[in-house]
Write a structure and sequence with these properties.
- About 20% of the residues lie in helices and about 25% in strands.
- The mean pLDDT is about 95.
- About 45% of the residues are buried.
- It is of the alpha/beta class.
- Helix 1 packs parallel to helix 3 and helix 4 crosses helix 5.
- It has eight helices and 18 strands.
- The strands form three sheets. Strands 1, 2, 8, 9, 10, 11, 12 and 18 form an eight-stranded mixed β-sheet that branches.
- The structure holds flavin-adenine dinucleotide.
- The site of flavin-adenine dinucleotide (FAD) has 40 residues, from helix 1, strand 3, helix 4 and helix 8.
- The site of flavin-adenine dinucleotide has 40 residues, from helix 1, strand 3, helix 4 and helix 8.
């Protein structure tokens, strides 16, 4: 089956959906295809069994000084609140000794979206013309043909021909999974391969409890561990939507980033999850023994985020640089717009919006 459109957006994460909303507002003919059976990409907020609260398994925060995120949330009428920061931080040394007397909060001032970040994705999707959106469409080949730029999906069973294609997925993933004809210039392919996908090496564990009981202990839910398996933990409790909804008695949640390297935790999900719960008991006491729900997401294992090169993530936030497509057959036909292509906020949610804005300018749309 072959379709035609002016602009093809590949990837329905934040950058792709935001781009689609901008194109739709300007009356452009576009089509968006997404490989997964859900939108959102790295934004993923499943809900608990016993409550309707959602828990961010990918990003959780944006920060003051990130104007596009604040503006988008205001436009979508989605409230946000400050990361819980009242109370002490728990510190665990490499031998497992724990102290709970440190009056500091590592994420104070960061904002969280009420109802989980995927709410932003839901709101963007709802606003778009549904006939232009296509899930479960995995692009594996893009070629220049006499009719335009053609993207082949799902084992070449379907094709979309466009005048311009905007790739809203991480450059390293593009280089790893999409075959280009003609080939991308060597320099471009090398730049893409060397561009780390932000947080792709990470895994996150969340435990949900009846109440945020650590607050009664004078703790914020923050922890730093040099023993593991989690190395950095934070409160992930939902916040009441309105003053009429009382969540002060629960549920409460804590999340942690795994410190165990991706290749060591591979295929060890059950053991890793048990060890995380044990660690929560060490850090926050016996009441942590019985979570009502746990979640685990290993992004390094996810073929629509990570490549094998992402098993070793960068030690610090990379300074993302421009990826050059000019002076090749792809100039004015192919554009990049995942967060990794944003020069100021690359890697962050804000960067996904920045990248989309910049791609619109480069594509003269
Ligand atoms: C664990 C974790 C924690 C994070 N924490 C934060 C945080 O607190 N704050 C923050 O600002 N940022 C954080 N980030 C980064 C943030 O998630 C990203 O900046 C943002 O979500 C990137 O959006 P994107 O649209 O550019 O890319 P993605 O969300 O990666 O979207 C790319 C899309 O392309 C799709 N796709 C892939 N391959 C194909 C294909 N072949 N064909 C079609 N579609 C395809 C994917 O399925 C995906 O939907 C975190 C990320 C992770 C993983």
């Amino acid at each position: 089956m072959t379709k035609q459109t002016d602009i093809l957006i590949v990837g329905g994460g934040l950058s792709g959906l935001y781009l689609a909303s901008q194109l739709e507002a300007k009356g452009h003919d576009y089509h968006l295809i997404e490989a997964r059976s859900r939108f959102g990409g790295r934004i993923y907020s499943p809900s608990g069994d016993d409550d309707q609260s959602r828990y961010d398994m990918g990003p959780a925060w944006f920060w003051p000084g990130q104007p596009r995120m604040a503006k988008l949330l205001n436009e979508l009428n989605i409230p946000y609140f400050d990361q819980a920061a009242t109370g002490n931080l728990v510190f665990e040394d490499p031998s497992g000794n724990v102290r709970r007397d440190l009056d500091m909060a590592t994420m104070e001032g960061a904002h969280r979206v009420q109802g989980g970040l995927e709410r932003v994705i839901d709101a963007l999707v709802t606003r778009l013309d549904q006939t232009r959106l296509q899930l479960s469409s995995n692009v594996r080949e893009i070629k220049i043909s006499e009719h335009g730029v053609s993207a082949l999906m799902n084992g070449k069973q379907s094709e979309i021909i466009a005048k311009k294609v905007i790739l809203c997925l991480p450059p390293r993933l593009i280089e790893h999974i999409i075959k280009f004809s003609p080939l991308l210039p060597d320099q471009t392919a090398t730049q893409m391969r060397n561009c780390p996908t932000w947080m792709a090496a990470h895994a996150k564990f969340i435990a949900v409890y009846e109440t945020p009981f650590w607050r009664e202990m004078g703790l914020s839910g923050d922890a730093i561990s040099h023993k593991g398996p989690m190395m950095e933990l934070h409160d992930a409790s939902p916040q009441a939507e309105s003053i009429n909804e009382d969540l002060s008695h629960g549920p409460g949640a804590i999340f942690g980033f795994l410190g165990v390297p991706a290749n060591v935790r591979k295929n060890q999900q059950d053991d890793v999850m048990n060890a995380c719960t044990q660690q929560l008991i060490t850090l926050f006491g016996e009441r942590a023994a019985k979570p009502i729900k746990v979640f685990y997401k290993d992004w390094s294992d996810d073929q629509f985020t990570a490549t094998p090169m992402d098993a070793d993530g960068p030690q610090s936030h990379p300074q993302y640089r421009p990826i050059i497509l000019s002076e090749s057959a792809w100039q004015d036909r192919l554009f990049l717009a995942s967060t990794e292509t944003a020069l100021q906020f690359g890697g962050f949610l804000e960067g996904a919006l920045e990248a989309a804005d910049e791609a619109l300018k480069r594509a003269k749309l």
